[in-house]
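Continuing the series of single-chain predictions for the mutant panel. This is the parent chain; the variants come on the following pages.
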Amino acid sequence: MATATTPATATETQVMNGAHILVKSLVDHGVDVVFAYPGGASMPMHQALTKYADKIRTILPRHEQGGAFAAQGYARSTGKPGVVFATSGPGATNLVTAIADAKLDSIPLIAITGQVPTPMIGTDGFQETPIVEVCRPITKHHFLVTNVNDLARVMKEAFHIATTGRPGPVLIDMPKDVQNRDCVPDWDVKMNLPGYSGAAPKAKPEQIKQIVAAIKLAKRPVIYAGGGVISSEASEDLRTFIKKTGIPVAMTVMGLGAYPNEGPLSLDMLGMHGSVYSNWAVRDCDLLLAFGVRFDDRVTGKLEAFAKHAKIIHIDIDPSELNKNKPAHIPVCSDVGYALREINKTVEAPAEIGSWVKLCQDWKKEQPFKFDQNSKGILQQHAIAELSRLTQDKKTYISVGVGQHQMWAAQFYKFKHPRTWLSSSGLGTMGFGLPAAMGVQAAHPDALVVDIDGDGSYQMNIQEMATCYCENLPVKVLLLDNQHLGMVVQWEDRFYSSNRAHTYMGPIEHEHASGERKWDGNAYMAEQHRYPDFVGIAKGYGWGAANVSKKEDLTAALQEMINYKGPYVLNVQVPYQEHVLPMIPAGKTVDDIITE
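Parent structure:
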């Protein structure tokens, strides 16, 4: 896990202003990219950033939320903290959604906001918002810096808090007068964090022995692996554990990539839109090994019925997660990587696991993720599966927006490595995909970065196309354009008698009286009414772009997108009638799973 570093130039004693101290602290903590949108209250910090242009790349997003999601993309794909700047008032409040998103998904994020001068705080001055108070429930910690002499310490503390224990977002609010005030910084100042050490908790030897014993006695064990495995850099430890024990593994949407989807013991994703076989395995298991998870409602459905026959071992770095939603028989507060390494020293495969593994593999053959292979048009699942096939041998990162396309990407893209899948999972924020991909591309300039997105989600941060073009970030967008808010349409179909309540995104005069549009097998009838013209928009932003609606043209179109030297949008015209299946209705159990 990334940790704060000691400033490299601790002997420097020159006078600096607050803005200079802050930016130099970023350099000393290894920051090489920031996403920063300037304004009146943050201008001194931007001036300081120009003094360090040889050490920190400053990327100008076109919206503060886009900048914060780009910082998340950087953090999620590297494990290092992402850094975003915004000005006071509306600039700061535009970060709020992305900060909340980082909190729920445990992403290390440093959000730095300008603030009105300290004498004006509380006067309702121009562009004043009490952003620390606004963000108090959605940050891991927060600072309002009122004394420039505190700033070197605050920066140390911010990075330490964001990157240790369970990672999360930290907010630093910088009044303009503090940015301009001078002092001689004390780079060797000690942190002052009473009650917080940041030291990773470690499973006790007796707990390790209990876990090893429980595994040895199990007949139907299943691993339930989540984002904590990835954030603790424990994917290799998990793979070693699976190899030694032969236990099948189901992953959360945050855990994808911790074990290869095509690995012999992979049960793929579990939960509401997870595989039938993973959900059945959890239902019937006698031992559930929950590693770095929080028993989220999208995984468990009806809590009391989830893994009701199993003994539960829950390992998590955050003690507040243990026994919070689901009581564990062996709750262990520990860094999951440390716990797995200790378990791996003595663990053995359960003696009677063979028939259970075969049963899970039989289920996997009988109930695979599937779609209509004979559809005349391009189905969303087919487009994603084909992208996966074409990019398996490349260094590829996949980001997504939120909606049906997100779940199909989780189902049909075959992930091999951790940190190559970026999804707004806990908060489910539409508009995440494009700016997150932008941040990944900044962190990994030689990689192929693809945002698989839907037309609804994509338009929420479409302005970041300008950033990608101007900053030479060759992000690719596989845009699954169905003219509707697809996931809400699916729920309308399943639970509201298909009554369309503001889920069609095209011109209203082209909508049928029934609220429906017809699919002719290749494209919408009245094709000229497709709106908006995403290819025209992309070209206006300097991107390459193309439409594709015929199945036989898809592979060549994907290859063109992949090989294009700059940013590129491939607008894939798909039907809105497709549903993401399987589906366990909210609050229901695996026995209520919908497969058709």
